[in-house]
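Morning, I've got a small favour to ask if you have a moment. Here's the protein in full, and shout if anything looks odd to you:
***
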Amino acid sequence: MLETELHERMQALVDRVQREADASGYFLNPDREFTTMLLEGYLINEQRYGYPACPCRLAAGDRDRDRDLICPCDYRDADLDEYGMCYCALYVSETIARGEGEAAPIPDRRPPGGPDAEHTLEPVTLAGLPFPIWRCNVCGYLCARTHPPAKCPICHVTIDRFSRFV
């Protein structure tokens, strides 16, 4: 019975991630066995830490320190643009998804020391703006308000995935 429940949870997760990818214009790795293996790691990390840390990286077990590794990680889009896939190869380019290219190892762009060691965005000053601007670290959504939204309206990640942009 436990194996049946696990299989059902895995299938529900695969279906959900596929729907989310389709709705957002992303492509999952066409190797279903590989994709399922990655998502098993996702579930294990979610049970272990309480959040779905990337299954291909070593998580600290502290949501604040690992916020850039919560799937989809902050590095997904840059990796897709430059290499045609994300670090763990869960998300791939349309070319790879169609079978016209292959996934290959890529370097990890996460800075040593985690997200707090990275300062790639220069602050922008907007004179007279009554609210700070918040940026979603996953999809780049920007909003001007007192606090970031509880969930990103674009990619649906939680508030801890936002950083102050201005």
